[in-house]
From TrEMBL, chain A:
Chain positions recorded as ATP binding sites: K45, G52, R53, G54, E91, T94, E99
UniProt lineage: Bacteria, Bacillati, Actinomycetota, Actinomycetes, Streptosporangiales
Protein name as annotated: Succinate--CoA ligase [ADP-forming] subunit beta
Keyword Flavoprotein: no
Organism: Nonomuraea terrae
InterPro entries in the record: ATP-grasp, ATP-grasp_succ-CoA_synth-type, ATP_grasp_subdomain_1, Succ-CoA_synthase_bsu_CS, SUCC_ACL_C, Succ_CoA_ligase-like_bsu, Succinyl-CoA_synth-like
Similarity remark: Belongs to the succinate/malate CoA ligase beta subunit family.
Annotated gene: sucC
Cellular component terms (Gene Ontology): cytosol; succinate-CoA ligase complex
GO molecular-function terms, A-Z: ATP binding; magnesium ion binding; succinate-CoA ligase (ADP-forming) activity; succinate-CoA ligase (GDP-forming) activity
Enzyme class: ligase
Cofactor note: Binds 1 Mg(2+) ion per subunit.
NCBIfam families: PRK00696.1, sucCoAbeta
UniProtKB/TrEMBL annotation, chain B:
Family: Belongs to the succinate/malate CoA ligase alpha subunit family.
GO molecular function, one term: succinate-CoA ligase (ADP-forming) activity
General function of this protein: Succinyl-CoA synthetase functions in the citric acid cycle (TCA), coupling the hydrolysis of succinyl-CoA to the synthesis of either ATP or GTP and thus represents the only step of substrate-level phosphorylation in the TCA. The alpha subunit of the enzyme binds the substrates coenzyme A and phosphate, while succinate binding and nucleotide specificity is provided by the beta subunit.
EC code: 6.2.1.5
InterPro entries in UniProt: Cit_synth/succinyl-CoA_lig_AS, Citrt_syn/SCS-alpha_CS, CoA-bd, CoA_lig_alpha, NAD(P)-bd_dom_sf, SUCC_ACL_C, Succinyl-CoA_synth-like
Assembly information from the UniProt record: Heterotetramer of two alpha and two beta subunits.
Keywords in alphabetical order: Ligase, Nucleotide-binding, Tricarboxylic acid cycle
Gene name of the encoded protein: sucD
Associated pathway: Carbohydrate metabolism; tricarboxylic acid cycle; succinate from succinyl-CoA (ligase route): step 1/1
Organism name: Nonomuraea terrae
Protein name as it appears in the record: Succinate--CoA ligase [ADP-forming] subunit alpha
Location of the CoA-binding domain: 4-104
SUPFAM superfamilies: NAD(P)-binding Rossmann-fold domains, Succinyl-CoA synthetase domains
Residue numbers annotated as active site: H249
Amino acid sequence: MDLYEYQAKELFGRHGIPVPAGKVAATPAEARAIAAELDTPVVIKAQVKTGGRGKAGGIRPASGPAAAESEAERVIGMDIKGHIARRVLVEAATVPFEEYYAAFLVDRAEGAFLAMVSAQGGMEIEELAARDPDAIVKLPIDPVAGVDADTARQLAGKAGLPEQAAGVLEKLWRVLVEEDALLVEVNPLICTTDQQIMALDGKVTVDDNAAFRHSWEYAEESVSLEAQAKAKGLNYVKLDGKVGVIGNGAGLVMSTLDVVAGAGAAPANFLDIGGGASAQVMADGLEIILADPDVRSVLVNVFGGITACDAVANGIVTALQLLGERGHGTPIVVRLDGNNAEVGRRILSDARHPAVRQVSTMDGAAEMAARLAAGA
Amino acid sequence: MAIFLTKDSRVLVQGMTGAEGRRHTARMLAAGTDIVAGVTPGKGGASVDFGERTVPVFGSVADAVEQTGADVSVVFVPPKFTGGAVEEAIAAKVPLCVVITEGVPVHDAVRFRALAAAGDTRIIGPNCPGLISPGQSSAGIIPADITSAGRIGLVSKSGTLTYQLMYELRDLGFSTAVGIGGDPVVGTTHIDCLRAFQEDPGTDAIVMIGEIGGDAEERAAAYIAANVTKPVVAYVAGFTAPEGKTMGHAGAIVSGSSGTAQAKKEALEAVGVRVGKTPTETARLMRSALGAR
């Protein structure tokens, strides 16, 4: 999960990394109060989990409390690349003397940790990597030994950062380790005119798998279908098309989306119901998909590995009973293969549900679902 | 022949006394696996009756290895305890440790991967279905009755796609099928499996299944060009999947590739690997590569 800038900076603060004084505000009035309390010129920063805020007008200077209120008014509710800014960070304006880049992350290609540091910060790091790749120092970090004061000094030195930045690098590594983060990135890390090292921005991605050993409370405020699905333990991603897709196993579902696209229709979603595929899970899945007004047909693609297809078929029948009337309008194409597929298919044909039709191959089922979605 | 796992493998199950561990141990036994021990801390001295065989439970991996000569461990313990369980297997020098558990923190995986690399253990997973050498042995949760023994090797990030291909090619059969897992950090890569299949006299051709994210498939393509002479066919899932957000800016830079299915397909085709549009077409490509119909 990606954190907002203000959440990342709270973490930084807790780990002793200097950040500008500031607080998060959800309303213009709150922004005004925070600016008054800071008693200095401030910057109003849109809190969105995407880059390019500055260019989009989501970062605005304000000379005092009144300006902070009016600027916050403009920024709150702003749509930046599809992300709505629900809050702003009101922060003491800070003038950098120099700007650097620093990050620690999980390098999935190597299955290890990596440090990336550069004396040229402030711009998009991809841009820097393309223009001047030698300006970025990359150092693999031994996961057992970690980053100690020596390694941090070495990193700072190699990248051309001032000596006093080493302490901040060491603390940044502690954020990665102690917060189970997959990425901690500071861009820019700045040196002020009075030689203070400070994190002017912050990006942190924490590992959801590690939530059990943390007291994170990073609730997502959302009423989307994705949020509803998540609440039911389903892995759902909304897409733009008309064919709803349900399957078991992430790989098979991804593959099903591709096969639907190959059949000439766009998939409406990704939905993995996992291994068990009980009647309740199937009903929850169908309910989410049928609640999507874009969906014209549904493709249920299940390969019985551990789970036998008769259990899946019973799940579908029960799910349709649970859904009642809601399950009748949209045609549902079912493809069952693998363990006990014959029995499963017979259960479905005996149930004679008006919405359900069966096709025995994945490619054939995708073609039928695509045709039905097109209204043919 | 097979890779990593044969009829001679002596398998222990960490977490055998839990519900999942018990259920899948019974399935592995039915698939012909020689299960010699279970390990559950604090339950040493107990045993579990599986009908045809009663399997002794030990309190530690070291004890189980010493008493039974186990050389494969399959890990079914909950995510909270998985890191510790795997580190225990590494310390006991178990040659192969198969981590089925889903939801293992990435930091734990990075750590046990590094420890394994410095020690004597190969790790497969986490978050994987394990591996099977049909007719010989199964370590994990891959169903044994959807396919048969044969001379195709398979390596995949995805469980159900593995099953789909094993089923489509069940008449030709498999030497070994390995599910390496879909987590960002895994112990055994596509390349490790390609190398082993290339060296295995019991494998004639290889199916490789990839999916979006990272650059493992691109790396595998480079490896195939330089080292693999056996026919390889591939399938890549996720052409229509939305762009992943897992790693943000820095991650994309490091991989040097955006991790799209298209990029992976192009990299594989550039080195002469035929890539199927669907799992079914991939199976067809394998048939023609083997000269079968």
